[in-house]
Amino acid sequence: MSEHITVIGGGLAGCEAAWAAANAGVSVTLIEMKPERYTPAHHSPALAELVCSNSLKAARLESAAGLLKEEMARMGSVCVAVARECAVPAGGALAVDRDQFSKGVTARIIAHPHITVVHREITELPAEGITVVATGPLTADTLAASIARRFGEGLHFYDAAAPIVTADSVDMSLAFRASRYDREESGEGDYINCPMNKEEYETFHAALVLAERALLHEFDRPKVYEGCMPIEVLASRGTDAIRFGPMKPVGLRDPRTGHRPWAVLQLRAENAEGTLYNLVGFQTNLKFSEQKRVFSLIPALKNAEFMRYGVMHRNTFLDSPRLLNAAFQLKEEPRLFFAGQMTGVEGYMESACSGILAGINAVRTLRSEPLFVLPRETMAGALSHHIGDASVKDFQPMGANFGVLPPLEVCIRDKRERYATLAKRALEKLEGIWHESDR
After folding, report:
1. Is 400 within 8 Å of 68 (Cβ atoms)?
2. I need a labelling partner for 389 at 20 to 30 A (CA). Which of 16, 195, 206, 257 fits?
3. pLDDT at 188 over 70
4. Average pLDDT over residues 253-259
5. Residue 307 burial by CB count (10 A; 0-12/13-18/19+): exposed, middle or buried?
6. CA distance linking residue 284 with residue 162, whole number of Å
7. What's the pLDDT at 187?
């Protein structure tokens, strides 16, 4: 096969880019440095490893995250297809068994007749050939330095992951199962809720604020993305900051008392077997010993067995509006494409979606065809246009949200109806351009 592109990075974006290009009939070499080398946040040799939460956000179509996943599914996403096969209970969200997810994507990539996976580290941007760079927010230092030399100093922020505990170590005499507002479809809540009264919460909050944090060596003043704010940083903003944030008790009622708790920690299933649960919203940079001490102050977790402690790691992303167009193509050198969180899209599925579009456009560039750019009315198109919007000066990561879409021609006051209408319009726009395009 004479047509060939290279994809660097075997995360979600890289796998989607390789998948899209290979399905277009192009030979793809997918280069992944694992298991030769791991970043501080990666542990599995598999492709498409989920390093933070196992949630891919809301599933319903009338949500921004749900709409994006549906758009991706209609564009042939390998990640969405596998995610739906290995979903675990998570209320209205699509959460996955992370091991099954990574193994499922890996198996499909390896089995594809047009994809060759090579395990080695890339230290410089390639000098020739059409290439998709999807090395992620934890791009290895040597390659990151090469990119920085080429494009100037990048922007940096930190991302934090939450701890995971075993289900059988949670004291269920002090916890209860429920989904917020009783939205569970199974009759039994998808979340384990760990309630606290006012005294328990204030003791926990005081310990959390004073707990010792792990040192961050790379930057004196790290910039933290608000959606992944460490729980201890959020708690330091005030006594009630986390009680109105990740520990909000709204929509929950403790069956032991018949009343709403003062504060609640929710635990969400990490695997299909329901043996592991993560502490929802408890991304943290506390020292491991402090995590054990402080989080065990939550009554239901007093004897919790921690299978993974929370970690904080570096994320790096490009000044994409200056460098990239809406096809994720480098403006000054069209043979190079970037995809994933390093472009400034925020979130697993947003990163994966950028890989689909970068892969499609890498093939189109190879074949001297017009670039494939989705309309702004689609969620994927709105995000890609944001990435390539040269008018953006203070560029920050952007995840799927209805605010990035053009407004409807008719004002609809009801939010649910408005979102449903926006989703309907988006899918109609996608269907039109997708079927008209040869990809």
Report:
1. yes
2. 16
3. no
4. 92
5. middle
6. 6
7. 44
The Cα 381–Cα 437 span in angstroms is: 15
Rounded to the nearest 10°, the torsion over CA 386, 388, 391, 397 is 50
- In single-letter form, the type of residue at position 346 comes to E
Greatest distance between any 2 Cα atoms in the chain: 70
Alpha-carbon separation of residue 226 from 212, 245, 361, 366, 399 (angstroms)? 21, 12, 31, 39, 12
Question: How many residues appear in the chain?
Answer: 439
* Annotated domain spans of the chain: 4-154+318-436, 164-313
DSSP annotation string for 383-421: HHHHHT-TT--S---B---GGGSPPPSS---SHHHHHHH
Task: Note whether 355 and 132 are within 8 A (CB).
Answer: yes
Fold (topology level) of 4-154+318-436? FAD/NAD(P)-binding domain (3.50.50)
Global pTM reads 0.82
Contact present, 36 and 120 (Cβ < 8 Å): yes
**Residue 285: what are its φ and ψ, rounded to 5°?**
-120, 20
Q: How is 329-362 classified by DSSP, letter by letter? A: BBTT-TTEEE-SGGGTB-SHHHHHHHHHHHHHHH
196-234 CB burial, b ≥16 within 10 A, e <16: beeebbeebbebbbebeebeeeeeeeeebbeebbbbbbb
How is residue 120 written in tokens? 């080695």
- Asked if 4-154+318-436 and 164-313 have one fold, the answer is no
Please tell me the predicted confidence (pLDDT) of residue 216.
62
16, 425, 92, 277: CA torsion to nearest 10? 20
With vertex at residue 376, the alpha carbon angle to CA 375 and CA 379, rounded to the nearest 5 degrees, is 100
* Cα–Cα distance, 318 to 320 (Å, whole number): 5
Tell me what the mean pLDDT of segment 88-110 comes to: 96
Binning the chain into helix, strand and coil, the percentages to the nearest 5 are: 35, 20, 45
pLDDT at 186: 42
CATH topology of domain 164-313: Elongation Factor Tu (Ef-tu); domain 3 (2.40.30)
If you ran DSSP here, which 8-state letter would residue 19 be given? H
pLDDT in tens, 51-64: 888 999 999 999 99
Bridge partners of residue 119, in order along the sequence? 32
